[in-house]
Amino acid sequence: MKEITAKELERKRDAGEKLNIIDVREDEEVEMGIIPGAKHIPLGQIPERLNELNKNEHYYMVCRSGGRSGSACDFLIQNGYNVTNMVGGMLDWEGEVE
Fold it and tell me: Residue ranges of the Rhodanese domain (predicted)?
């Protein structure tokens, strides 16, 4: 599984790269702040919402600490998606949130 640190992802975002970020936390966690532009799909809804993801795109998966996003990556990789896990999750994110 490919991994990226929160700081590396923040640098890419700050450099203006087009990023597809999927936040797999629960609703109440996302209410505390989400990376601007990230799409919220709770982990349990990923299988039924695959139609919202494009296999030709690359996605960065985010959760609170990196565990659930790692599970999402495992599932998506098995289904043919190109994904990278943000290790450390939002606990390590120091960039802006909305």
Answer: 15-98
Burial readout 5-38 (b: 16 or more C-beta within 10 A, e: otherwise): ebeebbeebeeeeeebbbbbbeeebbeeebbeeb
73 in catalytic set: no
Structure tokens at 17: 């790269």
**Catalytic member of 35, 63, 83, 86:** 63
Give pLDDT tens digits for 23-80: 999 999 999 999 999 999 999 999 999 999 999 999 999 999 999 999 999 999 999 9
pLDDT at position 33 is 97
What structural domains and CATH numbers belong to the chain? Answer: 2-92 (3.40.250.10)
Residue 76, CA distances (Å) to 14, 41, 63, 73, 98 in order: 26, 13, 15, 5, 26
CB neighbourhood size of 80 (10 A): 8
